Each structure stands twice: as structure tokens, then as C-alpha cells.
Amino acid sequence: MRRIKLLLFSVLVSQMAFAGGMVTNTNQSAAYIRMLARDASTDVDAVFYNPAALTKLQDGFYVQLNNQTVIQSRTIENTYVNKTYTGDVFVPAVPTFFAVYKTGDWAFSGGFTIIGGGGSADFATGLPEFETPFKDITQALSAKGIKTTDYEANIAFNGSSIYYGGQAGATYKINDMVSVYAGARYVSIANSYEGHIKDVRINPEYAKLGYSGAMVSAPTFFRDLEAAATSTGDLEGVGTARYLGAATQDREVDVEQFGSGVTPILGVNLAFMEDRLNIGLKYEFATEMEVENYTYKDDTKGMPGMELGMFPDQAKVAADMPAFMSVGIGYMATEDFYITAGLHYYWDKGVDYGRNGWVEGSGNGMPGDADYAPPVYNRGNNEDWIESNSYELALGLQYDISEKISLSGGYLHASTSPALDYQSGLSYSLLSNTFSFGALGRITERFDIDLGILYTSYAPDNKEIEYIAPGVMYTETYDKSNVVFSIGGTYHFGGPSNESN
After folding, report:
1. Burial code of 45-68, b = ≥16 C-beta within 10 A, e = fewer?
2. pLDDT digit string (tens) for 256-268?
3. Distance between CA atoms of 239 and 55, rounded to whole angstroms?
4. What pLDDT shows up at residue 179?
5. What is the DSSP-derived secondary structure letter of residue 384?
6. Listed residue (405, 282, 296, 404) closest to 345, CA to CA
7. CATH topology for 8-493?
8. Where are the domains of the chain?
């Protein structure tokens, strides 16, 4: 029987990333949602996008609060089981918060973000990885002369992943053209997985044991088959029936994972043409992290090929974030018209997203045993899982229709290059194009509101898979859709109002 091989530790992070790289979220402000290019920002959301530009603010204390509502749908079509799986995500609140204190040539800033993940995925009918083994069983039984054409099972999977980010740093103005930033982000990971496979039933035709093709309990059938094989001394038959009986037992999983790490961040801002042209540069170092399993229930332990289970208690697995560089250019074409563009580049291949498995022979005993030792993760990189690093290109436009209101729009192209083995129903990455629209309202001299909406269109990807029959290929197709609504408010305490972008 084909078993589930992929580690789930990286599943929700990549699946829940709403905008950005394969792991990193870059949708961190309502202004981003309405423009998609904020890497040359000189406004308060520059705390995240272009922190070296914060000395462009007027002196005073600034706070900004943003919220995003995310609606996402994932679909996986599998021709082997002839079924479409849908996973729905609705996240009513993805908050971010930024604060800046600007005084003279210095600016001190902090922020709270959801830097990775950010929600939960509910696959009410399971995933192909959980269901195709039961189709394998019907094929294997039919090949042995026990005609079996159908199966059914109660399969469900729900998981959530959130990477919380707390950032702080300082910006210094060297001269009117150049300012620099140094800071860091503390990242705290909280993942959870719950799921079950229950009530597996098949319809074998095996008159010797009284089975006529009706749907029956799979574990019961295999117990009868094992007893029959035992009575005739068929040792191979006993082993096969025992193996398949264990594989069709009810299984439940309930696990949480926690981990943390620190991301150093550096930035430079360059201003030209009396600040009409602004260039923002930011580099975030790779963040090496691992998550530890807190396993409350894992009925997969003891299954064939998964003796320690899918989530061995106390085991630790890599959950890195890649190094990330952004380059932004902002140009005030006229007094009313602002153009900005941005590039994001992620060094995915050089870090480890938790897919490299256990060190062979590591681990001892079963969870709960006095001599139990968890297996050791085989830390490496993503060279086997990712063909090339990912990048994004963005363009944003803003036009002031009055002193109080500005309209804006944006476009972003995201390119990822996962290897064939990376793509699965559990976790996949797709090329995408995102379009956005929104508005900025200057409510008072000290208070602004940003409103934005974005829609992401993904390019479906296909994977050819060989199951139990050698040389017979089936197709699995991955797709996704994404809509985000956002609102943000910025307030300036003291000093004149800010007129930045």
C-alpha cells in the first residue's frame, strides 16, 4: 500500500501564504492591498516595506493599524480517484500594527505582522494523499482475483499555521539623499493539525467467505481474510491481510507545533530630484527555525511504514524562512500622479522548509515509553524540492483626485519554481497574477484611512502520478483563488501632517 510520505510540517505555511513568496507574507498594510508596490514607501507602512525611509516623516509619533479579510479556495483534481477536493479558507481578521517615533535625523520604529501563514484550511472531504491508498487496495484485491470496485471512507483534515512577527529597529539620516536602517524581527510559530480517517468500507466479491459485493467494513473483511489464510497455512496471505487490515483502521491526529527565530534586517533609502524620486532597498537575512511537536493524539503510529507516526511527540522539524531582498522605486511624475515599482527576491533553495525526512535509524521506542527518543530531522536545504528561487514584480499607481482623496491600483506577478516532487495535494505553489484597487482618504490633517481590495489569479499546474499499476499515469491538477479586503488607519500625534507616499 502506498503510504503518505510527505511531512505535513511545511503544509500550512506554504498553503496559507496569501501574498509574497512560498513562505513569506508581504501583504502587510492596506496601502499594499490597494497598490501592490510599497517597497519605496515613505509612509508609516515603510516600517515593513522600506524602513530606511522613515526619516522622511515629519517629527512626531505615528501609529497605523491595518486589518485584512481573506477569502481563499484551493482545488485539487485527481483522475485516479476521479474526484475534486476543495479546501476553503476564510480569515476575517489578519491584523498588522506599526508605530514610528521620528525626531531629527533619527526614527525609531516597531511593528506586529503575520509574516507567514495566517489562517486555517478545512478540507472537509480530505485530500488525495489520504484517499488514494484505499483506491490502491481495491485495485490490489481485484488483481488477486477478489473483485473490488468501490470504497468509501470518512476523511477530514483541518490545519492552521501562523508565523507571528514582532519587529523593531532604528533609522538614521546620513544626509538629504541617504538614510539607513538596522533592525530585527522575532518570529514565533504556532501550527495545529487535526484530522481523521474513519469507517473505511469496500465491496469485495469473495464467495468463499460470504462476501457478495456489498459495502462492508474493510477491517472486518481483512480480519476474515487473515483467519482464512491462517487456516490454510498461507503465510504470505496472512501478512498481506494483516498489513491491509492495519491500514484501514480508524485513525485520528491532533497535534500542535511551536518554534521561533530571529530575522536581522538592513535597509538603505536613496532620494533624488528633491525627493521626487525615491529608491528603497531592504534585505532580510534567512531565519533558521524549527518547530517541535506537541502530540496529543496520533493514531498513525504503528502503521506500516510509519512506526513512529506522522507526528512523533517532541520531534523537531525545520521551518525556515528564506533570505528576502526588496528593491523599490517611487516617482512623483506630477503633483497629482505617483508611480512606483518593486522587486522581491526570495532565496528559497538555500533554506529548509521541513521536507527532508528523518535521519535513518534515529529515534528509539514508541512515544510514551520510558526509553522513548524522538527521531532526528535530516536538516539540509530545498535543493531537491525547488528548481529555482522565487521572485515578484509589482507596479503601483496613485492619482490624487482631490486634496482629500487618492485612487490607486496595482499589478503583481509572482513566479515560483517548485520541483515536481514538491507539488502535492498537501502543499503546492503556483504562478500568479494579482490585481488591486483602492483609495486613500485624508480624513483630517492627522488621520488617514486606506481601503483596498485585491484578486489573485493562479496558473493551474499538473502532475503525472503512477499509482499501483506500473506505467499507468494519472493526472493531479492544482488550482487556487484568492480575494483580500483591507482597511487601515494612520494617526499622527504632534507636528504637521505628513505628505508622503
Report:
1. bbbbbbbbbbbbbeebbbebbbbb
2. 999 999 999 999 9
3. 72
4. 98
5. T
6. 282
7. Porin (2.40.160)
8. 8-493
